[in-house]
Write a structure and sequence with these properties.
The complex is a heterodimer. Chain A is of the alpha+beta class. In chain A, the strands form 5 sheets. In chain A, strands 21, 22, 23, 24, 25, 26, 27 and 28 form an 8-stranded antiparallel β-sheet that branches. Chain B is of the alpha+beta class. Chain B folds into 3 domains: 221 residues, Thrombin, subunit H (Beta Barrel); 97 residues, Pdz3 Domain, CATH 2.30.42; 130 residues, N-terminal domain of MutM-like DNA repair proteins. Helix content of chain B is 16%, strand content 35%. Chain B is built from 11 helices and 30 strands. In chain B, the strands form 5 sheets. In chain B, strands 23, 24, 25, 26, 27, 28, 29 and 30 form an 8-stranded antiparallel β-sheet that branches. Chain B has a 6-stranded antiparallel β-barrel with strand order 9-10-11-14-13-12. Chain B is flat, with a radius of gyration of 25 Å. Chain B starts with a strand and ends with a strand. The chains are: A alpha+beta, B alpha+beta.
Chain lengths: 503, 482
């Protein structure tokens, strides 16, 4: 019900979806709905393209290695020589190709703008012929499809596949590539392996892009959200997504509202925790404040406001409703038995705002090898090495660091992820998943701290201390020549190209 | 972690052709038990019938497993090939070592029943026979097996202690629990648990543990096995040994961390190296050699009785020192193990049911309790005390349930939430909950949770007024058990 420092994200279902997408893309020809109108389809054939992305796939457990991955997505002609698609899978890209008409040659694509937090990207190509005959799609409102006629479109095996979809509801949930809450349309459809930017259309207009699918249910980023970001970008007013950096709960409990001396009907959102801002702006809210109105929208006792397009929505959506990072929200609050209006500047969301970064994009994994000891930053990308069910299967304690807030002294964490056995590290071969506290007496938050600390051994040894817990607290290793020789030996024996990759 | 299961049944007893007839002294035990309901702590679970085994020992007593008679409402015992049940009572029970001693008031029960004698720790690879009354039949059963290994094992009865145990490939099934493991007409073990998922693997409690228990109860009550709280780390890396100026041999394990047990923390320091514990040299992998078995060094302390001191040879700051470590049982981590000493503490106020956080409580969520429990509960129970002892709570308290009533109808937090403060009072134990509510003078009671950082209020007057009727409506006979 509330924004926490780093809310839970949806389960990691991407690999399964991706495999499904690749498999089905080259499978049987797409079935066609009996009631499809060919004239409508002919229109959409000029608006929808196929986007193929090849990218690096990092192995965070062995961060010096990497694989490759390829996925096909849908793209939508959105403007002059612009293809709109979701940002999903465009990170760590090595090649982007575009194809029109579902067949024929591919043109090399180029990303001209991408926002992972918003899950949107604009592509283009220098191929002068590519855009001939293509025309921008027109966006519409979700309401246009609520009474039926919703279709999902994509190129498949050379034909434009169109699948009927039924509208379910609009909810506010975290984004596909960020924990920022936003309004999402839930639809159901027989389409398979979707969620890769396929347009959802109604009455010749695009009402949203598919971002994910779970069984028959698919999630759609509404056109309103997309349009407002693209428009703000064109005007130079878009500075990334902001968010409400505080924790609140609905004002359902009348005793709680009475405790804070709110008079009148039960309403509002009670702020219960305000973490330190990630920027330099002052805090204007504090625990015990009751939010009554945000930018003209009254907040009801469920923590909802009435959205003109979608009806009742969670107020978290107001942080991304035509407002962006750095913009000011006028918030009416109840404080100390009196109403008060404050200006809340939306902090910019960054993956690195949290102690365990939510994601790492377009960067190779960092690591440092010291005589077989593998040190890495603790990130969600690392935890996702445990697979789709990583929130349940990754080591509990490492996962639980997601609940902790970063501090100035410790903005991030470094992990001893494993030990590659070598005579130098004998006795420590079984140690793994240990968060480093200090090395040679110096506090460690980043690999660069570790590298620096290793330059100053203590009496010819490295003293490595781990965060107290139910695992080993301390290791001592030889420094100097023995360390260097061991590292070289490990690199050679385990076929590792370099001892470190540190930004 | 290996998942151990206790075995409520009797042992089988392979015929060995010996002259003795131990089966006459093997007892069938039938227990009607009623454990508490941890999530609704004023209630008990339905009465369940469970079977086990036991055997007669000196002093007209029956030895069995603690888990056979835990939460017993009635214990019936039967002699070999005798239909008549006798009522038995628990005289002593040691949950950490999963042993219990029963008495039978009716003197006829022990007539012509010889006490079985105890032997020594059986050798690995030697043959043993397990006697008991396992499921699948009514008569006594015998199974022959080989002692596969002797190790420190987690005792499933409480779950968070490792004591000496023997492993055998003799079939040990539910009902074997408490039955004797015999070798050369002597008891060399008490069958007590199996390993889920592994066939032909059973565990027995060996004589050193049994004798320790018997010696402990000699004084008229049971104290338990020592737990020093020392986490010993292997000391095999040459650089670490060199830094500690320790000779380059295979002796000595390093004190990596200690629980806040004053006898331990006063006697030892972190990075002390224990060279010898009692009569046992401690090897660099933190083991000792005990009767031909290489075992965890914790055994050296467990062999002592509570209150005794274990002489240590310690390497400290470059030289050897003699240290005496007084040992005893430790209850500071009891919430992380299964508890059998009594039903859970609780307090009900305005339909809000508060109880201490414990492993038993989490287990009441079902099989995948670690997945369904909020991570705050897992962290608080297992990690907080180790990582930040300065802020750890003595007895973390959860809102276990909410009994719906008009007085709490708007209360958003329903259950399974860790309590932080009530009316500004930090909740360190359940007594604080009572104090916070009963001394609250404000119009509203303010309850703050660690879970989701939630804050909820109650109208104090309405809550106080509704309290009695809520207890009555939900058949809660008392608002507290402390």
């Amino acid at each position: 019900m509330s924004l926490i420092e780093k809310p839970l994200r949806s389960t990691g279902r991407l690999p399964a979806l991706l495999l499904g997408a690749l498999a089905l893309w080259s499978a049987a020809p797409a079935p066609r709905a009996q009631d499809a109108r060919r004239s409508d389809l002919a229109t959409w054939e000029h608006c929808i393209v196929t986007v193929e992305v090849s990218r690096k796939q990092y192995d965070y457990y062995q961060p010096w290695g990497q694989g490759t991955r390829r996925v096909q997505k849908a793209g939508l002609v959105a403007g002059d020589r612009e293809i709109l698609t979701t940002a999903d899978e465009l990170f760590d890209r090595t090649l982007v190709r575009l194809q029109r008409g579902g067949r024929g040659t591919w043109a090399e694509g180029k990303v001209v703008w991408i926002d992972y937090h918003a899950n949107l990207a604009l592509l283009t190509t220098s191929d002068t012929n590519f855009f001939k005959g293509l025309r921008p799609a027109e966006f519409g409102r979700a309401a246009e499809g609520l009474d039926g006629g919703l279709q999902i479109l994509r190129w498949r095996e050379g034909n434009l596949e169109h699948r009927r979809a039924e509208f379910g509801q609009v909810t506010v949930r975290e984004g596909q590539l960020s924990p920022i809450n936003q309004a999402v349309m839930e639809i159901s459809s027989d389409i398979q392996a979707a969620g890769w930017g396929e347009p959802l259309v109604a009455r010749s207009r695009v009402v949203g892009l598919l971002t994910a699918q779970e069984g028959r249910n698919a999630y759609v980023m509404p056109a309103f959200f997309i349009q407002s970001i693209l428009e703000a970008r064109r005007k130079g007013q878009y500075h990334g997504l902001g968010h409400f950096h505080f924790v609140w709960e609905p004002g359902r409990n009348t005793a709680t509202l009475a405790h804070f001396k709110l008079t009148g009907e039960p309403r509002g959102a009670v702020i219960i925790h305000v973490p330190n801002r990630p920027d330099a702006f002052p805090q204007v809210l504090k625990p015990g404040d009751i939010i009554l109105n945000i930018d003209g929208y009254d907040v009801d006792m469920q923590g909802d406001y009435h959205d003109p397009e979608f009806g009742n929505l969670n107020i978290e959506n107001l942080a991304v409703h035509r407002k962006w990072a750095g913009d000011v929200e006028k918030i009416k609050i109840w404080r100390d038995a009196k109403p008060l209006e404050v200006e809340y500047r939306l902090p910019r969301f960054e993956y690195t705002n949290s102690l365990v970064p939510y994601a790492v994009r377009d960067q190779e994994p960092e690591y440092l090898i010291v005589g077989g000891l593998i040190f890495e930053p603790l990130t969600d990308a690392y935890l996702q090495s445990w697979g789709a069910d990583w929130k349940r299967t990754a080591p509990f304690r490492l996962n639980y660091y997601n609940h902790d807030e970063p501090t100035k002294a410790r903005p991030s964490l470094v992990l001893l992820s494993q030990v590659l056995p070598d005579p130098y590290n004998i006795g420590y071969q079984d140690q793994k998943f240990l968060v480093v506290d200090k090395v040679n007496g110096r506090l460690i938050s980043r690999l660069s701290d570790l590298k620096e600390a290793l330059r100053q051994p203590l009496e010819g040894t490295h003293v490595i201390e781990f965060v107290p817990g139910d695992t080993v607290r301390r290791m001592v290793l030889g420094a100097g020549e023995a360390e260097g020789a061991a590292t070289e030996r490990v690199l050679s024996r385990y076929n590792i190209p370099a001892a470190a990759r540190i930004r | 972690m290996k998942k151990l299961i206790t075995i409520l049944v009797c042992a089988a007893w392979a015929l060995t052709g010996r002259a003795g007839d131990p089966e006459k002294s093997v007892i069938q035990i039938l227990v009607f038990a009623q454990p508490p309901a941890w999530e609704t702590p004023w209630r008990s679970e339905p009465v369940r019938r469970q079977g086990g085994s036991g055997f007669v020992i000196q002093g007209k007593r029956i030895m069995t497993n603690a888990h056979v008679v835990s939460w017993a409402r009635q214990i019936l015992v039967r002699r070999y090939q005798d239909a008549r049940p006798y009522v038995a009572e628990v005289e002593f029970i040691g949950h950490d070592c999963d042993l219990a001693v029963l008495t039978v008031a009716d003197a006829r029960f022990f007539a012509d029943l010889p006490a079985l004698e105890f032997g020594g720790l059986p050798k690995v690879r030697s043959t043993v026979v397990t006697y008991g009354y396992p499921a699948g039949g009514e008569e006594i059963s015998y199974t022959r097996g080989v002692v596969s290994r002797i190790e420190l094992e987690a005792y499933a009865q409480i779950g968070n202690r490792h004591l000496l145990a023997g492993q055998t490939d003799a079939a040990i099934n539910p009902g074997n629990s408490g039955g004797p493991v015999i070798q050369d007409d002597h008891v060399v073990g008490v069958a007590f648990q199996g390993l889920q998922g592994l066939e032909n693997t059973g565990f027995f409690i060996p004589p050193p543990v049994i004798q320790h228990f018997l010696k402990d109860i000699d004084k008229g009550h049971y104290e338990g096995f020592p737990h020093t709280g020392i986490r010993l780390a292997a000391l095999q890396n040459p650089a670490y040994r060199e830094r500690l100026k320790l000779p380059d041999n295979d002796l000595g394990a390093r004190v990596d961390a200690m629980l806040p047990i004053s006898d331990t923390t006063q006697a030892l320091k972190e990075d002390d190296v224990i060279l010898q514990a009692g009569a046992f040299p401690v090897a660099s992998d933190a083991t000792i050699l005990y009767q031909g078995n290489r075992l965890g060094a914790a055994l050296a302390f467990q062999l002592a009785q509570a209150g005794e001191s274990v002489p240590l040879r310690v390497w400290r700051q470059g030289r050897e020192e003699a240290v005496s470590l007084k040992v005893g049982p430790y209850s500071g981590d009891k919430a992380t193990g299964y508890q059998h000493d009594g039903p859970p503490r609780y307090f009900v106020y305005a339909g809000l049911v508060f109880t201490p956080l414990s492993l038993d409580y989490l287990r009441s969520f079902g099989r995948n309790n670690n997945d369904t429990a909020h991570s705050d509960l897992i962290y608080e129970l297992y990690y907080h005390r180790l990582e930040h002892p300065e802020t750890a709570r003595t007895e973390p308290v959860v809102l276990a349930a909410l009994l719906p009533d008009a007085a709490n109808a708007n209360f958003g937090m329903r259950s399974r939430a860790l309590v932080d403060r009530i009316n500004g009072v930090r909740i360190d134990k359940i007594d604080d909950v009572i104090r916070a509510f009963e001394t609250g003078t404000n119009t509203h009671d303010v309850i703050q949770f660690v879970t989701d950082q939630a804050l909820e209020c109650l109208d104090h007057a309405e809550a106080a007024k509704a309290n009695a009727s809520i207890l009555k409506n939900y058949a809660v006979t008392k608002d507290r058990r402390l």
